[in-house]
Fold:
Amino acid sequence: EPAVDARMQARRGLELDLRRALEHCAPGFGDSNPPRTEFEVFYQPTLDLRSRALRGFEALVRWRHPERGLIAPADFIPLAEETGLILPLGAWVLRRACAEAAGWPETMTLAVNLSPAQFAGGGLVPMVAEALGMAGLPPERLELEITETAMLQETETTLGILRGLQELGVGIAMDDFGTGYSSLGYLRRFPFDRLKIDRSFIEDLGQREASDAIVRAILALCSSLGIAVTAEGVETVEQAGALERVLDGHGEMLVQGWLFGRPAPAAEIAATWFAPGEA
Ligand code: C2E
Ligand code: CA
Ligand code: CA
Ligand code: CA
Structure:
């Protein structure tokens, strides 16, 4: 099967490149000498729906491959997860994002994504504590995002680690809410601080009564459970308007999406959002 062979070779090549790139991400490298790493953290703004006030940013990793150019996470995070390389990569992203966020205005929050593989091995809580400590970032400013798949295995172990993270003072968000098999089951078992409504529910908001009803129900659920809510993937004025109607002046909803800002490098978001006189 020459096609399969070629695919495996391409994958093997990418894995070697990933390994090579990560050699420059050991503690001490990425932080003091940023140009040496091929990875970069982009940041996407999160705003309060009603006031449109900036609340913080989500860290989204990018890989500047020397030959292939900018690679999106969908094209290397799965490989990093399969090969275990997500551990050094995830640690690097967290350290780097915490260090950059420590320079933002002090009300700004930082959200960082975690992979299921980072829950194995028992090193996650100390790793997060160390990243916060090195950066001098208060734990209250950090929120860690996990998808439901992270919780599929070792439920008790996973819940223990999540509790350990909350004890550090960081927030825990359930990402892509509504896309998994047992979203509600997890909500019952673990006190999430935030729930991020998946983009698929936002897409046809204001056009399909079912979508409006689902978002309304999620809001009601979160309000009674005391969980904060973010709507992801808001692309149009119509979607934002529909969200405002659903919110109907009650409570608070944060929003993220192209309508408000695309993920961008740290320097660019600083220039856009923290420029003197605009902050
Ligand atoms: P996610 O955590 O659900 O992040 C949101 C994704 O949606 C991002 O894609 C973002 O660029 C994109 N997005 C934001 N607003 C809009 C919008 O209005 N419309 C549309 N169509 N898309 C929007 P990105 O940066 O390509 O990241 C994809 C996924 O890769 C993330 O999904 C996350 O699961 C994963 N990922 C990214 N960075 C990291 C990381 O540092 N660690 C881990 N473990 N996963 C990461
Ligand atoms: Ca996320
Ligand atoms: Ca998401
Ligand atoms: Ca996702």
In short: The beta strands are 39-48, 54-65, 69-71, 109-113, 142-146, 171-177, 194-197, 228-231, 254-255, 264-265. The pocket of calcium ion (ligand 3) is lined by residues 175-176, 196, 232 (CB under 6 Å). The two ends are 58 Å apart (CA to CA).
